[in-house]
Amino acid sequence: MNLAKLEPIAMQKENVESLSNTASLSSALLERKNQAPGRPDYIKVSNFSFNYVPAVRVLHNITMDIPEKQVTAFIGPSGCGKTTLLRNFNRMNDLIDGVSQEGKIYVNDQDIYDRDLEVISLRKRIGMVFQKSNPFPKSIYENVVYSLRVSGQKNKEVLDEVAEKSLRSAALWDETKDRLQDSALGLSGGQMQRLCIARAIANRPEILLMDEPCSALDPIATAKIEELISELKQSFTVVIVTHNMQQATRVSDRAAYFYLGKLIEMDDTTQLFSNPSQKETEDYISGRFG
Amino acid sequence: MNMKTGPEDTALDDPKRFTASRQVLAVDWFMTVFIRLGGVGVIVTVVGIFFFILSQVVPLFQGANVDEVSRGEAPSLPQGNYIGLATDEWSELPLVVREDGRVYFIDLRGQRGVVEKAPEWLQGGKVSAIEIDHGAQVIAMGTDGGKIHLIRFEYEPEFVDEVRTVKESLSEEYQGMVEAGKPVKLIAMGQSERVRVIGTVSGEGGSQSLEVKILKRKRSLMGVGKWKEVEQGDLSGELPAADKIQKILVSNRGDALIVVADSGRVSYFFRGDEGFKIRQHFAPFEDMPGRKIITTGFLLGDVSLVFVADDGSNRVFSLFRSEADPVRKFYHTKTLKSLGAAADYYASSSRNKAFLLGAGKHASLRFSTSEEIRWSEDLPWKVQLGAISGKYDALLFLDDAGRLHKYQLDDPHPEAGLKAFFGKVWYEGAPEPKYEWQSTGGSDDFEPKFSLVPLIFGSVKGTCYAMLFAVPIALFGALYTSEFLHPRHKIFIKPVMEIMASLPSVVLGFMAALWLAPLIEDKVPSLLLVMIFVPAGAFALGWLWGSRPMYIRKWIPQGLEFLYFMPVLIALGWLGWILGPHLEQVIFTVTDPQTGKSVGDFSQWWPKVTGTSFQQRNSMVVGFMMGFTVIPIVFTIAEDALSNVPAALRSGSLAMGASRWQTAWRIVLPTASAGIFSALMVGLGRAVGETMIVVMATGNTPIMEWNIFSGMRTLSANIAVELPEAPHHSTLYRTLFLGAFVLFLLTFLVNTIAELLRQHLRERYKTV
């Protein structure tokens, strides 16, 4: 039993402060280039295969390591399985009837398909932002503090503080601080998506999964979110699925190229885009295919 | 593909390809018109139904319509002082009595004019007192010679070529003597099948004597015998000597004698086994010093007395047993608007509680129960005598010039009115005003009671108990099915529920009445235990299971927990069922009056402790069975609403680390609230309108109490039960339409409010 490892990591004080101050964060980001990263195999996928019913294999023997506190981008054409893999990290695929998987996925050395593992505690450590923004039909404030509410947090001061910090981190505070009690559904598309990010990070998860977070947004909103992602990796391990290769180059440290359910290549982003080792990768990123 | 473009490629270059074909446009036009017609048709039909019901209801609230029947000159009578007016059933041949004892029949159809009957029996005497009993068709006369005569008048309809003519006849039934030479001042008569009571007052002032004669007749194989005097008594001694008797009345059963004195005091004598005994003295206008009683008369049924004072004040007193006094006495029940002056004549209807009062030219038709004036008018001449026809369809007035006027009376629903339907009404015989529904009774003088309040109450009660039972089961069932149940089982549940919804309610009602009601009649304690054990067990089991660590919970797959819970819950239910009788022996005990031992019997215990009744067919049975019709409807609609909550919201919540219950309770339920609300409203509508189950499974007693172990009568059941008894266009018939109208308004109101709330919820919880 490996439950001890799943205890949430103590939130580092300077992290919170740096998050609340985006200006100093941006400069810190530039200096962080040569900073020693966390564990290189924070999420470890080994020989993982995944089937939908009936016997449709959508992931074939994936083996990869995702490093801690870096942005890892999954790229590839539609239907190549990158979203499926992402949704396996927090076991969202459990919701689908009749799926099965082989192989292992470890998060921080914990086998997430261990039958003794409480899936709720796993999901509490892994935030997720969906392709289409899905704010709850509640107020902006209640959306942000939802994860704390379901954990039983009732202290108003804590909730207020978390709401403000999360909204600041998601660069949404200035726009919403005067209407926190308004319905979240009154926000614009870009604001909603940033609200979903604020909601996902409110509980300080260790990993943030983003499933094409900018696919429905205009370039300005996209830029804001990309900026945000770069800042978030200070505290979170970010895995992002994207169709947009420019976006992948802009935000990610590492990139993985999937094709037809197989991992073709995974490397540092600069390396993968400038000098791919596989022919398929090159075809895809150069736009000759896909 | 190699596409050729050029003028030579005519096949692909059809010039019509940009125009819409005529057929498409025609179909489009036709469907538009057809659908619009359908929509308008539906609205027209609903509005039409509404107006039809309204048209049936409106006459209930209209007043009386009175018009003089103009048939040329009103028939004129010979000179003289007329003292009595009576009429036949059809008001075609009324009779008047002159002071000299002559009786005139007046043919209002104008064929025979005035027919004089000069009876030989008076022998030159003068009639000094008269009373006409319409029911018995007897004129009672007292003469100044001290004699009394009872004269029977009869009408015989004859049909010649399908035209009705009425033949009259007069005959003397009885002749008697009070005291020779002493004029009879007042006379009153009442008769039942065997007994006839005649009260007389003769003499003046101090020498006034009040006498009672009791006549009887024998029935034999040969027919009915003659009336013979069997008893005579003098009641003068019972009254204060100073009082001058002004009016006496005998009730139609001959069991009550009312004596009105000019001092304003009324004495009520009751005839028991030992003859007439004084039972009550009262003064109707006690609180108005100096008022004298001018007119007194019985209403139909002879349990209510109408008094008019010399200033026109009009009060009604009724006989009933009060809580304090077990003996039936007269108490003040109604106060009608003042007539304005002392009444000259009084006539009561033999159909209902209406009576006619007049003072000079003013005439006023009043209805006692509703305290309403149905019609009043100043006539062009002074009226001497008035009468209401037997069918309550005509008024007759004899003016001071000796002319008889017939007025057509059109007042089909005098007993109806807003107050009668929705207010507390003080009916005769009741100790207080109350809401009461009783449409038919045993006797002719029965007064129908049409309060809709007990029926509305019954509808609300039945609906409440049904919803109380159905809503928790249906909603939690829907929530469990949509959010927790494994999809493999989910696909069976809904079709099964829909089959349940299609069960005809008459079958359910039949089952409720013949199977369920007797089954649970003596099993109430068992049911009580089952209702405690099963939900409590479910909660306990859920909590126990949910708080186990994952290494235990992993053994039962998510969504299949119910397979393991069900046997436990069934066992608990069974345990409750068999423990019930033991509980009954311990808690619900009563003392057996015969053996003096303590026995457990809930059906005895409940009335003893709560003071309310315990009936086999009660609201609990209705609640259960009606619940069965409501559950599937609420369940399916609510389940649809819950399942339609976007999966993105559900996965959003789960991804935040919320449990399935938290997701269901905090996200899914509020988001689906508009749909769930609709489900509740549709269920409510079904419960309110449900008829067959209520008709069959309750006693249909229109009582107003929340007691779960008594029955009720709902608006819808009332329509079903009473319709066969309601003659076309009668008050009952229209009242049933009013019930339907109230039901219509009730559902309309509930639906409108529900729709507004639903819009609000939908706006609030709309999803992106």
The total count of helices of chain B amounts to: 16
Helix content of chain A: 25-40%
Largest sheet of chain A: 6 strands, mixed
Distance between the termini of chain B: 42 Å
Mean pLDDT reading of chain B: 88
Give the DSSP E fraction of chain A (strand runs of 2 or more residues): 15-25%
Form type of chain B: elongated
Task: Characterize the quaternary organization of these chains.
Answer: heterodimer
What structural class do you assign from the helix and strand content of chain A?
A: alpha/beta
Uncertain regions of chain B: pLDDT < 50 for 5+ in a row?
A: none
Fraction in helix of chain B: 25-40%
The CATH class name of chain A reads Alpha Beta
**Cα-based radius of gyration of chain B, to the nearest Å:** 38 Å
Largest interface: A-B, 36 and 30 residues
Can you describe what's shown?
The complex is a heterodimer of chains A (290) and B (768). Chain A is α/β, with parallel strands linked by helices and 290 residues long. Chain A has one domain (25-285): Rossmann fold (3-Layer(aba) Sandwich), CATH 3.40.50. Chain A contains 13 helices and ten strands. Chain A has a six-stranded mixed sheet, with helices on both faces. In chain A, a hairpin with a 3-residue loop joins strand 1 and strand 2. Chain A starts with 12 loop residues before the first helix and ends in a 5-residue tail after the last helix. In chain B, strands 1-30-29-28 form a four-stranded antiparallel sheet, with no helix packed on it. A four-stranded antiparallel sheet of chain B has the order 2-3-4-5, with no helix packed on it. In chain B, helix 1 (22-57) packs across helix 16, helix 3 crosses helix 10 (619-643) and helix 13 (673-689) runs antiparallel to helix 16 (731-764). Among the domains of chain B are: 77-236, Lipocalin; 463-520 and 616-729, Orthogonal Bundle (MetI-like fold); 522-541 and 548-615, no CATH class. The mean pLDDT of chain B is 88. The radius of gyration of chain B is 38 Å and the shape is elongated. The A-B interface holds A 90, 92, 95, 97, 115-118, 120-121, 123-128, 130, 132-138, 146-147, 149-151, 183, 185, 192, 196, 199-200, 203 and B 487-488, 549-551, 554, 646-659, 662, 666-667, 670-671, 764-768.
